[in-house]
Amino acid sequence: MTDTDQERDRNKETAFYKFTQQTLPACKPVLTPAWVITIFLFTGCIFIPVGLVTLRASRSVVEIVDRYDAECVPEPFRIDKVSYVQDDSIPKNCSRFLKVHKYMKAPIYIYYQLDNYYQNHRRYVKSRSDQQLLHGRKYHGTSSCQPVEFNNDHAIVPCGLVAWSLFNDTFKFIRERAELKVNRKNIAWKSDRDHKFGKKVYPYNFQNGTLIGGGKLNPRIPLSDQEDLIVWMRISALPSFRKLYGRIEEDLDVDDVVVVHLMNNYNTYSFSGKKKLVLSTSSWLGGKNDFLGLAYVFVGSSSLILALVFMLLHLRYRRPYRDTIYLPWNRKSLSV
């Protein structure tokens, strides 16, 4: 035997050769009726209890949702709401009364909800500069921020449509003539505060143009501490979304009436948007969302139904394992 033949034989023993020739040992499970029925039963028995526990956690969350954009427009201005919200000479203050129907344990999270607001629009999403948010005016590549890039030949910090449209409605909560303190610290992600917004970057030339978009920023506070802005800059994927405004650190009892004094500044009327105020508790699973629990219950129930159907079919048309007599190409021999 030559050296070439010996080398060829050695190559045939390598894992790569066996892999390319599909001769590696492999697990080839045979899905017999018993295995299929067992798998579906096991899936159903696991998914249904998990779904019920998840639904229970979601249903334990107490929510108060109040839409205020329509009611907070004075009667004479309801024909032209856009003119009302754009006129700075008209006061925008409004009062709402929220009744607590179920005990709410602190912390109680305050959200503002916007509907029919497409933050995921491509032009809107691109109109920002993450490098400028981190480095400030030292970074000059802000062409993506157009049309909100410069004002009076000076750079705008933070630039772009996302920051320009910052939500600026404010809320104050009263219970039994005593103000409920709202904790507005740590409402943004820690990773965003520490790594995406500069600690030495301050607002500059922001909302100084003729066309004002949304809220203004304190030029003496660095962007890393402007948590309203940080929360707003995290883009929502859906046209209806909630963003965290703050937390109430006191419990609310049944039949408590919370008076909300708000400033209806933000313009959603020009695009038929809706504004809602949400007070919500939380569970070990988070906020109120029945989708995950319903999905688990649906998959588990479907698995149990399929297991029952396969079991009945197996009992009705039982045949030995590897019996091929009923295969199509063998039926002719049966008929003869």
UniProtKB/TrEMBL annotation:
Subcellular location: Membrane
Membrane-crossing segments per the record: 34-55, 291-313
Keyword field contains Iron: no
Pfam families: CDC50 (PF03381)
An annotated GO cellular component: endoplasmic reticulum
InterPro entries assigned to the protein according to its UniProt record, in alphabetical order: CDC50/LEM3_fam (IPR005045)
Keyword Plastid: no
Top-level taxonomic group: Eukaryota
Keyword annotations of the record: Membrane, Transmembrane, Transmembrane helix
UniProt record similarity statement: Belongs to the CDC50/LEM3 family.
Database matches in PANTHER family: ALA-INTERACTING SUBUNIT 2-RELATED, CELL CYCLE CONTROL PROTEIN 50
Protein name, entry field: ALA-interacting subunit
Organism: Theobroma cacao
